[in-house]
Automatic annotation (TrEMBL):
Pfam families: Ribosomal_L27 (PF01016). Belongs to the bacterial ribosomal protein bL27 family. Residues 1-21 are annotated as: Disordered. InterPro entries: Ribosomal_bL27 (IPR001684), Ribosomal_bL27_CS (IPR018261). This is Large ribosomal subunit protein bL27. SUPFAM superfamilies: Ribosomal L27 protein-like. Gene3D superfamilies: 2.40.50.100. One of its GO terms (molecular function) is structural constituent of ribosome. GO terms for biological process: assembly of large subunit precursor of preribosome; translation. Keywords: Ribonucleoprotein, Ribosomal protein. GO terms for cellular component: cytosolic large ribosomal subunit. The keyword Repeat does not apply. It comes from the Bacteria.
Length: 88
């Protein structure tokens, strides 16, 4: 004989892990080749000059330089480029 009434089940109690998306390096910041600039779902930002796009649409620097955000193209998209700095 049970001394406590059986508790009902619940359909709550779980949550997905955070994905840590967003801009990681802002305009004017100096980056090295391979640095992640933006983590995103889809292409909110598009790869510009000296920027590569990964399989999950992560944008990364392909050369050392300074990050620059700008808009352009026929659809006025947001681009991220790297302005290479000359070695002194």
């Amino acid at each position: 004989m049970a001394h406590k009434k059986a508790g009902g089940s619940t359909r709550n109690g779980r949550d997905s892990n955070p994905k840590y998306l967003g801009v990681k390096r802002y305009g004017g910041e100096t980056v090295k080749a391979g640095s992640i600039i933006v983590r995103q779902r889809g292409t909110k930002f598009h790869a510009g000059v000296n920027v590569g796009c990964g399989r999950d649409h992560t944008l990364f620097a392909t050369t050392d330089g300074v990050v620059k955000f700008h808009t352009g193209g026929p659809l006025n998209r947001q681009f991220v480029s790297i302005e290479a700095v000359a070695n002194a």
